[in-house]
Sequence to fold (151 residues):
Amino acid sequence: MEMKSNSINDNKHIALLEKERLICNIKSQKDQAMYTENAHFRNFIQLISAEKIYLNPSLNLDAVAEKLNISANYLSQIINKNTGKTFCDIIGKLRVEEIKQMLNSTQYDKYTLLSIGLEAGFNSKSVFYRTFKKFTSMTPSEYRDRLVYNV
Fold:
């Protein structure tokens, strides 16, 4: 029983590390050291990874900063310092990755692209399509068609 518990914890830890790499683009030990220096940034990563708050369509920088008990301006600064990206870019990237997983799952075969975008936290079709194309260089339809024809 204890082995199963450790295995589950190990899987959660591995999933968290993958999210960190996705968000921070951590490549080297130097990048890892910089990342671990800021407890607020680690808390931000933990919050978006463990709770998947990026799936909330009304999520914004102010709400996340409030959850972390820091100012939105400071949160924005530490995100930019640690990733070179904006809050919106990180949330958008995570949502696109969620959509890609959904499109790769038979569970979502009957969903329209728009409903998948809404499930992933986007609150408008235009933002969904624009963000998806920004991170994949193709539209959601093109991505889905590639999956279908590559099977």
